[in-house]
Design a protein that fits this description.
The chain has 12 helices and 5 strands. By secondary structure, the chain is an alpha/beta fold. The chain has a single domain, classed as TIM Barrel, CATH 3.20.20. The chain has a 5-stranded parallel sheet with strand order 1-2-3-4-5. About 40% of the residues are buried.
Length: about 325
Amino acid sequence: MNKKEFFCVFISLLFLACSPKHEKMQEGMYEPTWESLSQYSSAPDWFRDAKFGIWAHWGPQCQPEQGDWYARGMYDEGSHQYKWHVENYGHPSEFGFKDVINIWKAENWDPDRLMDLYKRVGAKYFFTLGNHHDNLDLWNSKYHEWNSVNMGPKKDIVGGWEKAARANDMYFGVSIHSAHAWTWYETSQRADKEGPMKDVPYDGNLRKEDGKGKWWEGYDPQDLYAQDHPLSEESNNTGRIHSQWGWENGASVPTEEYFQNFFDRNVDMINKYSPDLVYYDDTSMPLWPVSDVGLKVVSHFYNKSIADNKGVNNAVVFAKILTE
């Protein structure tokens, strides 16, 4: 190795050593407490004036065209989604949702043409799905290898939508649903109770080492399915999750590592695309009350907006069920 090569390697290693392992929360007016966030007294003028927006709830769950909760229902033996999956793709032990992601190519996606249409029909803002409960990030995610740039379409879906929205002078939003992957994917830990595949586990417990020679070699399915944990109470009752949506009634509580990863992924998305709106498909805020990570993300989002807009907060956050 000559001196030039040695210097390049040294600089690369130094950069890696100095790179932060986690994202930092933007400091400013807002702190991650309900009291501090209550200072947000009114929505910005642009949001009050923008009466009509369009949301593209579009991701890998659209590949089979069997409903947006497909990645949960396909593991529910006897359900219509399970039956459709077995008939069209095979048994969930052999072809899981990770494999649905692989065949979703988004080859006909044309964000510029669609955004032109949305603007012509009067939309003032546009929402893209950032991720669904199936836990695939639809951007070039720094902290989550299961993303649409690494696999499936191999495209930055959020980035493509964002560029098209800005080009059409539309405000841009992202919806995030991944907080619930922990409990939502629990059906993938099951196995058939009857029939020729009885007691054969579905693919929800696969590990990285199981992928040798497969298309997903090098990726850990647990980073997608997040199922290395005990089941929630009454998990075999598929409808039970609705009463556990706020992490109550015996819901399995995620780990600190899961909370940190959620924070890093969200801050990464906010920093990359500077959305005007973020929607969380959660009760109050993501992972509340078992963690304050959702409050940290929202504080970061508001403080970043203030820093980017000369002291004015133009950001909007809303959630599915507001109980606080």
